[in-house]
Every structure is written in C-alpha cells, then in structure tokens.
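User: Fold this one for me? It's Histidine phosphotransferase.
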Amino acid sequence: MSVNSVNLAALIGSRICHDLISPIGAINNGLELLGMSGDLGGPELELISDSVGNANARIRFFRVAYGTAGDQQLGRVECVSILEDMCKGARLQYSWSPLEPCNRREVRLAFLALQCLETAMPYGGSAKVFCADGKWTVIGEAEKINVDDDLWARISGGQSSTTVTPSLVQFALLPEVAKEIDRSVRVEQSLDKITINF
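Assistant: Here's what I get for Histidine phosphotransferase.
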C-alpha cells in the first residue's frame, strides 16, 4: 500500500493529536478535582487551567485540520464547540454558520482556511464559515489585514517563492487537500476582508 505525502502528513497529525489528547484531558480532570477540594486556588490554578484549556482546544482543532479525514460527517455542535474553545481569550473570533452535519473532508478545508486567515489578522478580527449548495465561503474581516501576496498565491495554485515554515504549513496543505476532493480554491481580498471560496 502506498501512502502519498498528504495522507502521510494526515496520519502523523492524527497520531500526535490522539497521543496528546488523553494526558491533557487527565491534567484538566486533575485541576477540576483540585478546584473542588479547595486545596489550590488563585491565579496559579487559573493560569494552568487556561493553558490546559487552550492546548485541548488546539488539539481538537488540529485533529480536524491535520488529521485523517474519511467520508464521515461532523455535526454542527462539534464544529461550534471546537471553534468556541479556540476563541476563548483569543483576539480572533470564529463563527460557524452551517446548520447541517458536514463532510469531514470539507470541514478540514474550512479549518485550514481559518488557519490561513489567522496569519493575515495578527491583531484580531472575525472569521466566519458559510456553506450553501455545497459551496464553501470562509471570510476574515479585520481593521488591519496583513497579506503576503506571494504566500497567498500558493492557496489558489499560483507560483510562490515563499518558504513554507511549520507556522505556514496550512498554505501548502490547503490546495493539496482541495485537489484530493476535486475542489479549487479561490481567494479575494479587499482592504479589510479576505474571502476564501472552495
């Protein structure tokens, strides 16, 4: 059985998320028990609790964005829960509009698009996901948009000389994952808005 590079990356992502989610959950449970017993309180416990919550939210998000994606459906409740947890204490606020369960592969594309938008809105803003008649739109709006045109050209299949670093891997993965499910990605940009369609 041969495994292409996109599938191999997804398998690695799934494995890492799977192995990390249990110990982080255990730490969170331990913190809850400490909080209930009254043995520990104050800003120290709050800082640890916030950090564990942030790590848990990111792993759940990464599991969808970078993990393996079959043909199963992801429900609205799960998508909203993941994004709401990602918003806690963050400058960027996410919203999920689709009401019906969505194909996990398409949700994966939406999450990768959200991560691309995150890099363009370093000072915060809002990112919204819409789906109508099988067509997806992910919109990022902020007072200040910071777009590297060369990097963003990569998303819609254009030539890019920007080196893909670990923090920019979503720009390389998004078009490859889209290609696997016969989608093309288009990007539109204005002064305060970026729209990704697929």
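One thing worth pointing out: The chain has a mean pLDDT of 86.
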